[in-house]
Amino acid sequence: MDKAIGFVAPEKAAQRMKARYTMALAEAYLGSSTGRRGTSEWTTAKGSPDAMITQTQFDVLRNRAMDLYRNAPIATGAINTIITNVVGGGLKLRPMLDRKKLNLDDEKAEELEYNITCEWDLFSNNTECDIQRTLNFGEIQEVVMRSVFAKGDVFVSLPRVSRSGSPYSLKLQLIDADRVANENFAMNTPTMINGIEKKLETGEPIAYHVVNMNPQSSLMLNPEGRKWARLEAYNTKNNLRNVIHLYRTLFPEQSRGVPVFAPVIEHLKMLDRYSEAEIMAAVVSSLFTVFVKTESGDGLINPMEPTSETGGSTADDTQKLAAGAMVGLAPDESIEIANPQRPNRNFDMFVQSVLRQIGVALELPFEYLIKHFTSSYSASRVSIMEAWRFFMNRRRWLARSFCDRVYEVWFYEAVALGRIKAPSFFRSPLLRRAYLRADWIGPARGHIDELKEIQAAEKRINLGITTHTQETIEQNGGDWVSNQLKLRMEQELKGGSSVNPEPEGRVEETEEVANTDQLPNSYEENEDEAT
């Protein structure tokens, strides 16, 4: 037709061709087409990230995610697996002073780092750091991570409370995400979004509005008992945080976090129902009951007498299937035995297929999600590597978003009290950052073949790719310097025998053998104190 029109009316043909090109460009992405069968009924929500999460939707999302965590084994296991590998018993502080900026030699830097570690241990390794005197800092990290994954976010207030049990007044107060809401649960505004008061021009948080009790509590039914407190986000004197808001920012201008189960809530719930139904079907199929039919209708058993060890009777209103039960039938009554075909042979295959999709959304390999390692060595190693990329990413997020911020506020107080000597800490932002540099050490990655991993670590050290300190952290989360001191002590107790004896038949010497001749001079000078 186009050729015919082009022969008769070239101008009309050119207009038709132009229109076709315009339509093709408009639907360059098939996903944007509204005329195709697969996308014609696809409706989507519009708006900013905050507009997608109104207070009502936010509450429903959190409540459903929490119900899954409490009652769905897969959801519970997924979060517990993440917390075990990311946090473990809590990330441990390892000060990493910038020695060059602070103009410190190795001996002074090590002494200062040791002092910082001792003071931090005094603050964090007991329940005095918790305003409720319930958790230490490591346990607080675990609760924080669980709240972020299950509820989407959590708030940590940093009040000052002086107590006789600790020289530090800094305390940590965990605030449940449900308690941060607009006053009287009002609608969101450009400057008040789900309990967070923001500056209109920049979008930065100014204050957090916290109700005095959990909205899920029955006490909230009485409006007179509701009281909101306004917590300033930052201290106006030193610009330190008063409140730490922990959540994963997925998109720009996002004010609150969403549970990690948000994309798979429906899948998890349906899978939980399916599993429960299959279990019940298997139980019912195992209950074999004999029905006895007689011409007189009397049956073999008195209808009101117990029929099984459980004490159940065969009265019409109480008859039910039971293990080894016998039930009489009236005249002209019969029974048909239905075979439910349980257990379902396809159950495990189907569930595993669904779990693979859930694992992709949660960034957990299938083997980690269900704790089932049956693949080859190479496949299992790849699974562990992929999982640990995810775990280490979340660990860095926790260290940066929570541990570093608490550490900074604590360091201010420690220097102000004179318990840590840090010249120019308050005057120079550059030196302040040099003092606050730190690593946070968590649980080590597991190994399938430890011998191969150790040999690979040895080669990496010999090639200068990593250091003894880095490899020690990777292998077991330990401290290489501390290990050397302890090895020397053990060597002295053994009477001077070699720390790492050479195996028989080995001729060449290696530079990696740990002995006292290779230790720094500072350790030799402090030998008595270290012992």
Verbal overview:
The chain has 531 residues and is of the alpha+beta class. Helices cover 44% and strands 9% of the residues. It has helices at residues 2-8, 10-26, 49-52, 55-71, 73-86, 99-102, 106-124, 137-151, 265-286, 347-362, 366-370, 377-416, 429-436, 450-462, 468-476, 480-493, 521-525, 527-530; strands spanning 92-95, 153-157, 173-175, 192-193, 196-198, 205-211, 228-232, 243-247, 289-293, 325-329, 438-441. The strands form 4 sheets. A 4-stranded antiparallel β-sheet has the order 4-5-6-7, with no helix packed on it. Helix 1 (2-8) runs antiparallel to helix 2 (10-26) and helix 4 (55-71) crosses helix 5. The termini are far apart. 19% of the residues are buried. Mean pLDDT is 81; it is low at 302-317 and 501-531.
Order of helices and strands: HHHHHEHHHEEEEEEEHEEHHHHEHHHHH
Unreliable segments (pLDDT under 50, ≥5 consecutive)?
A: 302-317, 501-531
Number of distinct beta strands: 11
| Overall radius of gyration | 33 Å
Query: Approximately what portion of the residues adopt beta-strand conformation?
Result: 5-15%
Helix/sheet category:
alpha+beta
Biggest β-sheet description: 4 strands, antiparallel
Shape summary: extended
Straight-line N-to-C gap: 97 Å
Oligomer: single chain
- Report helical residue fraction: 40-55%
Mean pLDDT, to the nearest integer, reads: 81
Biggest β-sheet: strands ordered side by side in the sheet: 4-5-6-7
Quickly count the helices: 18
